[in-house]
């Protein structure tokens, strides 16, 4: 069984990315390790008094993101693909690489934007960073309108 790390950001193309990853996982008898990296500054706001931290805002956002991860996990499991999820706050590239190594990933599956021929716009900065720095193969799935 191959281990496939699938980072998701809950954007409008997440469903297409998940569908592509599920298709790939079925072809290679893979298990999907779903990951979402939340920003470290979720509960911070800037106002008249400078930066302020609101732990209840952060807790609510993390709770909502866990609900979304659970829904995606259940959708993947319903298609007979083994799956588990993980959420962590921090810098996306570093956490995805660390998690991929921890799970002995055979592949990291990312999506491309498909907006332009310019590489940074085409694959996105996170995908570009992972393909550049990852010792693990990165499979880029084209995501189109």
UniProtKB/TrEMBL annotation:
Keywords: Cytoplasm
Keyword Cell inner membrane: no
SUPFAM superfamilies: Adenine nucleotide alpha hydrolases-like
The organism's place on the tree of life at top rank: Bacteria
Residue ranges constituting the UspA domain according to the UniProt record: 3-142
Subcellular localization, as worded in the UniProt entry: Cytoplasm
Membrane-spanning parts: none
InterPro entries attached to this UniProt entry: Rossmann-like_a/b/a_fold (IPR014729), Universal_stress_UspA (IPR006015), UspA (IPR006016)
PANTHER family: STRESS RESPONSE PROTEIN NHAX (PTHR46268), UNIVERSAL STRESS PROTEIN UP12 (PTHR46268:SF6)
Family: Belongs to the universal stress protein A family.
Protein name: Universal stress protein
Organism name: Chryseobacterium oryctis
């Amino acid at each position: 069984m191959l281990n496939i790390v699938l980072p998701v950001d809950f954007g409008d193309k997440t469903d297409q990315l998940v569908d592509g990853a599920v298709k790939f996982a079925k072809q290679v008898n893979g298990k999907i390790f779903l990951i979402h990296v939340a920003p470290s500054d979720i509960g911070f706001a800037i106002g008249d008094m400078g930066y302020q931290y609101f732990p209840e805002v952060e807790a609510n956002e993390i709770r909502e993101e866990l609900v979304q991860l659970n829904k995606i996990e259940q959708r993947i499991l319903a298609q007979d693909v083994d799956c588990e999820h993980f959420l962590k706050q921090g810098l996306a590239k570093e956490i995805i690489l660390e998690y991929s190594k921890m799970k002995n990933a055979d592949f990291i599956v990312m999506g491309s934007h498909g907006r332009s021929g310019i590489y940074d716009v085409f694959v996105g900065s996170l995908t570009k960073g992972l393909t550049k720095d990852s010792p693990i193969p990165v499979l880029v799935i084209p995501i189109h309108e």
